[in-house]
Amino acid sequence: MLQLGQIDRSDDKPPYRQIAGMLRDAISTGQLIAGERLPSEAALIDHFGVARMTVRQAVQDLRAEGLVISEHGRGVFVRPAPPIRRLASDRFARRHRASGKAAFTVEAEKSGYSPQVDNITVTREKPNPTVAERLRLTPDDEVVVRSRRYLADGRPVETATSYIPATFAQGTKIEQTDTGPGGIYARLEDAGHILDRFTEEVGARMPTPEERRALQLATGVPVLTVVRTAYDTNDVAVEVCDTVKVASAYLLEYDFSAR
Amino acid sequence: MLQLGQIDRSDDKPPYRQIAGMLRDAISTGQLIAGERLPSEAALIDHFGVARMTVRQAVQDLRAEGLVISEHGRGVFVRPAPPIRRLASDRFARRHRASGKAAFTVEAEKSGYSPQVDNITVTREKPNPTVAERLRLTPDDEVVVRSRRYLADGRPVETATSYIPATFAQGTKIEQTDTGPGGIYARLEDAGHILDRFTEEVGARMPTPEERRALQLATGVPVLTVVRTAYDTNDVAVEVCDTVKVASAYLLEYDFSAR
DNA sequence: CAGTGGTCTAGACCACACC
DNA sequence: GTGTGGTCTAGACCACTGA
């Protein structure tokens, strides 16, 4: 049974923060382990002798920190850490593509989870200014826009949207739902755009409500945003890929020279 | 004056979500711009005909998303986007170091903000298991631990903790608060450890309460965690640097080959 | 069914900002 | 001072879970 202290009414820290602090300590010291249920609101009200809103505010703080998740009708639980995918920067190397597999599949086999892709859409649009600039297009050029969602062991972990200049995608499988073995990059190379290098821009923020839905995100879990641009051997930008990843499920690895 | 709709009581979306949605729309459509004040709680209560806790819960949602910040006694404001530092992966290149400047200073001059470092502490400790593994040390070896906080135009943007094997730091300025021109890396190279490459591991999460204090973080702003390991030309790990960055203030750029 | 968290009401007192 | 958000109380009804 979990042992908790009492509120110090003379403390300037408000009661709800004191309660949040005690629960946080219980979690960080291992008195409450991942997946375990916290005392119910009723139990906390009894123990601390406060109103319901006070304990709810404490729990609310912990949720915003991503420490706990609450499940309607069941209870509040210490958030279990999901398995973490380490993404190495060689994940788009040609040797993987040569095997006919997409980067996400290769990664899945290495790490031992079952990969899945859904919600694939393919459209043709005018690029937004950011994409246009990266692809060095005018706003009047067209791009093929490919969106999809990636799942690992059935759980959404990432959404991705690729933008490919229509002139490069024209008449290739890039315009179809199934791009064939090796994915977009293999088709671009088939078309003579031999890939040379990528740049990635990494940031993080809280998800929008739509992203929370699409990625089934608990409160208190941010997203990593990664915008990748692919260049061919003529230094032509051939694709921009905008991805939103569940932050708790990823570690991105990069190598670079000291010279 | 801001125009807002009314709550639809027959909607299954609860009133507080409807209110949050309308405010969110007002922000995303530009009816409320960065830095502008939202209607006061009293005004929202009047307008929507709900209890105070209902409008507070709506605002709470927006705070957790990082869309607004509330200031006690002043109001709730659309969160202004802070200037974003783009960190290129060549920021530790030797040519910068040669000029006698630390990476943070070089970055500051390029981007035009005033750099500052404070809270510098230097201790000698046994490494924790993670650091020990990265530095290929035994738990009995010692490391010099250097912590500091970086500020841009007076605002905290990052905390960093470096771990250097004591055998490499011994007798150098690395053990002192002021490491001299070019910083730790210059001193390691003075000592014959010519730097060859770095690896970085990037993740994101919500800050701990201590981090929120140290970085003066508003609610709804995650942190980027970057763990960098430096290797010398003998492939010896000579430093691990653990950094926590305000996510809204950074974009990390990396380049890598397609081969 | 009982137990859980989700939403809401209608008040209260407080601390802070600004005039 | 007035107006703002921060904290707290003591209820109410609802929706979901699981025995």
UniProtKB/TrEMBL annotation, chains A, B:
The keyword Glycosyltransferase does not apply. Residues 13-81 form the HTH gntR-type domain. PROSITE patterns: HTH_GNTR (PS50949). It comes from the Bacteria. This is GntR family transcriptional regulator. The keyword Hydrolase does not apply. Keywords: DNA-binding, Transcription, Transcription regulation. It holds the Pfam family GntR. The lineage of its organism: Bacteria, Bacillati, Actinomycetota, Actinomycetes, Mycobacteriales.
